[in-house]
Design the sequence.
């Protein structure tokens, strides 16, 4: 099939091992094959992401007993019958393939069963079955039913428009392998929008799986290290350049005014800043070096050059019995405007056996968030949080409560509502200084808490920024009604009202005043997508139309209601909510 995917079904599934004899065969794909005897059948369950056309492209088997007749069924419908060849030398390790069976079937979304019936008196082994599926997005995890998908749904959600207006969403997403990057970036535009709502509801699929912690396995930019060098021999060095993808080390030997030789290591490197959505130019660093073969009377001096020029020299005396030393480099040292540099000067009585085991520059550890409980009663809890080295430092927002209390230097604040089935409170709302808002419904009964996933930037954010934001100067919060007056750094403003029940959390945004370019988006949807089954969103529906895959190159989508949701379960934040955005009112004057 063109533009399709081959899914691979190993015959020795868990169920097969319990019900059939398994033969250990070296030439089998995973060294195991299922033995079928006369009258027996093998059943393999596989799943579909969407309704699709399928073909059996290969059945790999071995037969040492003679010709057998085999019937293949899909969901109890016979699709093919074939006669097997047999191994002349009676060797079960001699595997053969049927090739493509000329039969196509249309299978619905969800689980399906493949049956292989042995009709003759002799036995054969089944190694695996390959199936061509007319779905370019299906994965092996979906095929093995480790990720399950649902049919398209018709939400019971009324869409109301007071006046016509031009509203559309644009595709600004990009691919990533990191599950902790908001690579899904969809700004929504309506220069005349006056009122809209954001709704967070539980996913439509039925699942109790609740993975809720970060996965940084493919997130190399989140590594603790800015760069690392290893195993550098200094014994015979005269001049050498070592380059990695993160830094360059120029190593040379010189002679000082006292005619004593010394080694210079000049390190140059780039550091990412706000333009890349990073805080590395503001975050302090730890430089650490470990030597081997250090003789007595060895010193090392270090100085660096960053945004403020060249630092003073700092010296360390190396101990041959513990030849490791480090320096702490303060916050706000590095720059992203040009190359940063560090110089190391090594003076030793001998360089004969001297080498560097490791040399690295690491980000300093961040301090824990500072949480202040600003309000609590039977109906609501409000907390203000200050983040160490917030990415828009030194700026932050002010939180003004209706009881007269004012809190400054707030990176974000969060609101909890009662969860009646566990006598506790559940977090339902977070608003960050950069305009990001996260919503959660109350967790279902039996679940202590569910994770945030997708978010929205409320306010006008530059759509082309790697990390778009709309900085907030102040939020005035009425602690009884949960209504908020939001003031933005660009002069814009909006009113927010938080509503919550046991089914959904709804945020109504009204009285919108644009402070910057009226052609900027009024809201930006942000989320994560690596693949089907590893994402926080995989589809969007506009005005109730057919779904569009979230990473499709759709350019723009015209509409006034947007549902961002997952059709398939995910190993990342599986119970994080679907997000609805509904434009309620626009006017042209």
Sequence:
């Amino acid at each position: 099939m063109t533009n399709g995917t081959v899914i691979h079904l190993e015959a020795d599934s868990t169920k097969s091992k319990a019900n059939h004899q398994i033969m250990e065969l070296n030439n089998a794909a995973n060294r195991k094959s299922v033995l079928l005897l006369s009258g027996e059948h093998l059943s393999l369950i596989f799943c579909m992401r969407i309704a699709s056309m399928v073909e059996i492209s290969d059945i790999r088997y071995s037969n040492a007993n003679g010709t057998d007749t085999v019937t293949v069924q899909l969901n109890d419908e016979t699709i093919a019958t074939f006669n097997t060849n047999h191994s002349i030398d009676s060797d079960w390790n001699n595997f053969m393939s049927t090739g493509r069976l000329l039969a196509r079937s249309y299978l619905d979304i969800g689980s399906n069963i493949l049956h292989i019936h042995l009709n003759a008196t002799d036995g054969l082994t089944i190694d695996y079955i390959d199936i061509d599926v007319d779905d370019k997005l299906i994965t092996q995890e979906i095929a093995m039913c480790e990720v399950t998908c649902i049919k398209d749904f018709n939400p019971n959600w009324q869409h109301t428009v007071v006046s016509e207006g031009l509203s559309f969403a644009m595709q600004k997403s990009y691919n990533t392998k990191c599950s902790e990057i908001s690579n899904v970036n969809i700004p929504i535009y309506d220069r005349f929008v006056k009122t809209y709502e954001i709704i967070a509801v539980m996913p439509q699929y039925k699942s109790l799986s609740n993975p809720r912690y970060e996965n940084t396995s493919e997130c190399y930019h989140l590594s603790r290290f800015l760069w690392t060098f290893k195993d550098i021999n200094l014994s015979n060095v005269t001049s050498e350049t070592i380059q990695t993808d993160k830094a360059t080390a120029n190593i040379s030997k010189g002679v000082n005014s006292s005619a004593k030789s010394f080694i210079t290591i000049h390190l140059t490197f780039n550091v990412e800043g706000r333009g890349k959505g990073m805080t590395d130019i503001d975050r302090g660093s730890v430089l650490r070096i470990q030597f081997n073969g250090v003789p007595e009377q060895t010193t090392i001096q270090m100085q660096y050059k960053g945004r403020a020029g060249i630092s003073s020299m700092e010296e360390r005396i190396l101990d041959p019995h513990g030849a490791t030393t480090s320096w702490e480099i303060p916050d706000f040292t590095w720059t992203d405007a040009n190359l940063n540099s560090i110089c190391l000067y090594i003076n030793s009585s001998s360089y004969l056996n001297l080498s560097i085991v490791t040399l690295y520059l690491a980000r300093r550890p961040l301090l824990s968030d500072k949480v202040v409980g600003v309000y609590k009663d039977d109906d609501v809890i409000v907390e203000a949080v200050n983040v160490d080295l917030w990415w828009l430092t030194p700026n932050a927002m002010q939180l003004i409560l209706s009881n007269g209390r004012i809190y400054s230097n707030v990176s974000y604040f969060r609101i909890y509502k009662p969860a009646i089935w566990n006598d506790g409170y559940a977090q339902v709302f977070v608003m960050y200084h950069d305009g990001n808002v996260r919503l959660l419904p109350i967790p279902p009964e039996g679940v202590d808490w569910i994770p945030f996933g997708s978010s929205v930037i409320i306010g006008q954010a530059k759509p082309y920024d790697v990390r778009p934001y709309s900085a907030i100067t102040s939020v005035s919060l009425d602690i009884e009604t949960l209504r908020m007056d939001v003031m933005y750094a660009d002069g814009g403003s909006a009113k927010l009202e938080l509503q919550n029940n046991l089914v959904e959390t709804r945020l109504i945004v009204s009285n919108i005043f644009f402070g910057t370019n009226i052609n900027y988006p009024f809201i930006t949807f942000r989320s994560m997508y690596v693949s089907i089954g590893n994402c926080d969103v995989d589809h969007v529906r506009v005005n109730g139309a057919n779904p569009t895959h979230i990473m499709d190159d759709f350019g723009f989508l015209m509409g006034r209601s947007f549902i961002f949701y997952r059709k398939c379960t995910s190993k990342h934040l599986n119970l994080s909510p679907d997000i609805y955005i509904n434009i309620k009112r626009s006017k042209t004057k």
